[in-house]
Amino acid sequence: MVVHLIDGTYELFRHFYGLRRFTKGKDPPFGAVIGVLQTVLQMLEKGATHVGVATDHIIESFRNDLWADYKTGEGIEPALWAQFHPLEEALVAMGVVVWPMVELEADDALASAARIVYDDPEVEKICIWTVDKDLAQCVRGDRVVQIDRRARAIRDAAAVRLKFGVAPALIPDFLALVGDAADGYPGIGGIGAVTAVRLLNRYGAIEAFPAEVIGDRRNLAVLFKKLATLRTDASLFRDAEGLRWRGPTSAFAAWAERMGAPRLLERARKIQSPK
Q1: Residues 234, 30, 99, CA angle at the centre, nearest 5°?
Q2: N or C: which terminus of the chain has fewer CB atoms within 10 Å of its end residue's CB?
């Protein structure tokens, strides 16, 4: 079986701002939600059978306690924020497994889910659908891959090294050194991508750097690495079979009507019972 793990928060953002190109600034109350549901249905129509979606139920996480400037929900447009929780509820009604994260982030849920199914001998491949470079650390050979919709790229371990210059296991170290503006930490001053790659390929993980390499900034680099390292210990489900899509629940008809999108229900039922 092939397991598909989807970054629901990213998909919601993608559809929200993509839809604005056609709505002239008027945001339909469920526009982005419908877009995400259509994306998941399309995957199911193309043969996906085991699917899980991770979402940020809130933006803040334990990382905000580690670094004061770590990303928060500040600045998220109200029309977008209003669709966060309806997305989770609509996906559940459609019969899709959803992990709404509070203490952890959606990225941690994806990493944890990948860890859980990796040991399942029935799982042939694990596809993590996100553009977030953090998730590159979860790639393992050609069995756990990252799918970047924006770049239309499928990245196995070799592709991760080609893109970033380091192996997947060193992605947290790489991000710690160069920083991640999206997540709100600056990295180590004076160390750009080229230098980071050179240091990591020479010495390995930050903890193995000789004392003179980054001097008294070592502790800061280790902190940033902790921010960049995804948690894999979330107990989300027992095994891959728990992610099997079995069709929409009885609640999905009401959701389709509420969203003004009856076609979603038709498509879901057709996948469940093809004729």
Answers
A1: 5
A2: C
Residue 118: CB atoms within 10 A of its CB come to: 16
Give me 68's structure tokens.
């004061």
3 state SS of 154: strand
User: Rg of the Cα trace of the chain?
Assistant: 20
Give the C-alpha separation, 30 to 268, whole Å: 18
* Residue from 104, 89, 95 nearest 269 by CA: 95
Residue 154, strand partner residues: 147
Q: How far apart are CA 251 and CA 83, in angstroms?
A: 18
Question: What is the pTM for the complete model shown?
Answer: 0.95
Q: Write out the DSSP string of 9-38.
A: HHHHHHHHHHHHHHHTT---TTHHHHHHHH
Report the relative pairing of strands 153-155 and 144-148 from DSSP bridges: antiparallel
Token pair listed for 5: 């793990």
